[in-house]
Amino acid sequence: MPSPSAGALDAQSRRVWTSRDVRRLLRVPGDHDDKRSRGVVALRTGSDAYPGAAVLGVEGAWRAGCGYVRYVGPRRAADLVLARRPETVTTAPDADAVRAEVWVIGSGTDASTRADSETAALRALLAGSAPVVVDAGALDLLPAAAAPVIATPHAGEFLRLRASLGLAELSVDVLRDPAARADAVRETAIALDGAVLLKGATTLVADATGTIAVGAGTPWLATAGTGDVLGGVLGAIVAADRAAGGTTALAELAASAAWLHGTAGRIASRTEAACGEGAGGSARPIVALDVADALPAAIARVLAAGGHDEPDRHRDFDEHHEETEEGRA
Questions:
Q1: pLDDT tens across 200-233, in order?
Q2: Rounded to a whole number, what is the distance in angstroms from the first to the last CA of the chain?
């Protein structure tokens, strides 16, 4: 199928996101930039049970071009973050307020075991003015959020989020229908008064203005931890925009992050080479850090393409798959 042009709508009236859209929103540092002017991301993620989520999210933020990354979390996770990325500034969960252009919360945490003090800290972030990327163990707090938010559920979490917002009950089978899935995501975004990114074979991003389809990925992304990397990428893309005084819609920034994440998955898995677009070879399994490692190449590809649409091989398939092992809820 030929690559769609920027701004094109598919059969479900979803805007198809392309490399031209990503290039338009991707902020490239200039001569007068410093680490803070490129955007500050703070992640309150990971736990003693799942410390790797913190590492993966921090890695995603750095690899997506963030100038300054802070990690706020338990000691075990912080030590692992520093071992992988010593550039990161770590802060204990009970420290004084941390300032950032955007927060990423919830990855690698479990609402059922969350301490009251952590709940209070997360609620404070969701009552603030800085955008918040909300994943996994913090999704239950969204109904009371006042901050600008991007919710990043997988299918099971999406259905629970809808229930918490008082929306009509849906089944996973309903979400396999492309039109119904698009309608449900937009309805949820409107009820939330924010942006919703629903992971899948075609990732959907919606806000009150409409729904965007991002089909740049590969089924090899259906492995544990890739959603944690995506959280970091989302933080980096939003922080760069806000640090420059931008007011780009969060849904558009989220779609750009999803496109870069999906393209990095294709590069890491050699999916394009297997399809005859590269120097031979076969597609191969990947792990989450492979995706993070390929993010600079994905960004370089967008910048090299300039104003031309990169053939992202968008396919209008919506047979559902999850981005993480936990997604099979």
A1: 889 999 999 999 999 988 999 999 999 999 999 9
A2: 33
Residue 177 DSSP code: S
Number of continuous H segments (helices) and E segments (strands) in the chain: 10, 10
Q: How far apart are CA 85 and CA 79, in angstroms?
A: 10
Does the pTM surpass 0.85? The reply is yes
Provide the token pair at 26. 């991707």
Indicate the residue type of 295: L
H-type helices in the chain, by residue range?
19-25, 52-63, 75-84, 116-126, 155-164, 178-192, 226-243, 250-269, 271-274, 288-305
Cα angle: 300, vertex 301, 305; to 5 degrees:
115
**Phi-psi group of 285: left, alpha or beta (phi > 0 → left; psi -120 to 50 → alpha; rest → beta):** beta
CA–CA gap between residue 69 and residue 61 (Å, rounded): 7
What is the arithmetic mean of pLDDT over 25-47?
A: 96
What does DSSP say about strands 149-151 and 132-134: parallel, antiparallel, or unpaired? parallel
pLDDT tens-digit readout, 252-277: 999 999 999 999 999 999 987 655 54
Q: Long-range contacts for 293-297 (Cβ within 8 Å, ≥24 apart)? A: 293/63, 293/268, 294/264, 294/265, 294/267, 294/268, 295/60, 295/63, 295/64, 295/233, 295/260, 295/261, 295/264, 296/63, 297/264, 297/267
